[in-house]
Amino acid sequence: MTGEEREPAFEATTSGVDISNDLVALDSRFERARVPPDLAAAVTGEYRGAEIVAIAKVGEYRLVKVRVPGEGGSTLVQSQWRRAGEGWRVVTADILRTDPA
To answer: What is the CATH number of the domain that holds 64?
Structure first.
């Protein structure tokens, strides 16, 4: 960036895109029933014994938070998933925190 640009360059808007299910109100409760069954199966297959505690849809990605139990407590992991053929694959995973027992 040279500082000579007068206006920032934004992507062109896309018509016909429904974003109504992309955002969740802060006062809402997480409903596990809204997690697609095939995604839930992929997540629980990746994180044995984990509980899905949150999910967000961002474009083609799904951000999934899981609480994974362990010997010393539990770990909160946020992973990013994307469709891969007929299923889902994890793209990234980050440990958000570890809680002692």
So the answer is: 3.10.450.630
